[in-house]
TrEMBL record:
GO CC terms: centriolar satellite
Superkingdom as given in the UniProt entry: Eukaryota
Keywords: Coiled coil
TM stretches of this protein: none
InterPro entries per UniProt: CCDC13 (IPR038929)
Protein name, as recorded: Coiled-coil domain-containing protein 13
Record lineage: Eukaryota, Metazoa, Chordata, Craniata, Vertebrata
Keyword Phosphoprotein: no
Gene behind this protein: CCDC13
Residues covered by region (Disordered): 186-237
């Protein structure tokens, strides 16, 4: 584009120079043509014929000049159009340069962001790997704990069954002792009633010291023995 503009400019300058040189000749040629119209060619000398030939050549040059002038105008117009296009192209290039600068800035920003994203991804991958290792260890530990809990559960179930059996035995013993105690208490109550009735019939002169072998006192001894047994049962329980 720039080379074509320079070429057109050079061509325009050449045409302008040729146009300036031929302007003076044009006026002379016009006068000579008027003279030729009034002159008989047979009366002209050789010098005049040569001059006439020269003038004919100048006429051709004039036509050529007019043609060149037209071309010059066309080239000038083309030059203006090319210049406008060049100016538009320069403006467009300026805009494109600005856009390229902006895009470069965006690319730099994206590259930096991409670098930070890569670092973040690496950190997350490392963290994920650590979490997977921790999860694996926890899974193994959980399996061990399950096995230990299973063994412990079996042992506890066995102990609970033993304790339940022992508790059931103790409950039966306690129930038997309670039944025995209740029976003895009823028997004691009857004996006490009987003893009280005998004391009422014996009279007020009798004292407890005169009757060392009181039946009620004698029967209280098994109760004490039964209480000791009940105490032993409670201790065992």
């Amino acid at each position: 584009m720039l080379w074509s503009v320079c070429l057109v400019s050079n061509k325009v300058r050449e045409l302008e120079n040729q146009l300036g040189q031929n302007k003076t000749r044009t006026s002379v040629t016009e006068i000579d043509e008027e003279l030729l119209a009034l002159t008989d060619l047979r009366k002209l000398s050789a010098q005049e014929k040569n001059l006439l030939k020269i003038r004919s050549l100048e006429k051709e040059k004039k036509e050529t000049l007019e043609k060149l002038t037209g071309e010059h105008d066309a080239l000038q117009k083309s030059h203006e159009e090319v210049k406008k296009k060049l100016d538009a192209s320069k403006a467009r290039n300026k805009i494109l340069c600005s856009e390229v600068k902006t895009l470069k800035g965006q690319i730099v920003t994206l590259l930096e962001k991409g670098k930070h994203d890569d670092e973040l991804i690496d950190a997350l991958l490392s963290q994920q790997k650590q979490m997977q290792e921790i999860l694996k260890d926890l899974s193994q530990q959980d399996e061990k704990n399950k096995e230990s809990q299973q063994v412990l559960g079996q042992h506890l179930n066995s102990e609970v069954q033993k304790q339940n059996c022992l508790i059931e035995q103790l409950r039966q013993m306690v129930a038997e002792r309670e039944a025995k105690v209740k029976e003895l208490e009823e028997e004691i109550g009857q004996l006490q009633k009987k003893s009280a009735h005998q004391e009422d019939s014996s009279g007020a002169a009798d004292t407890p010291s005169e009757h060392p072998e009181d039946p009620g006192f004698t029967l209280l001894k098994p109760l004490a023995s039964g209480s000791n047994q009940f105490g032993r049962i409670g201790s065992a329980r």
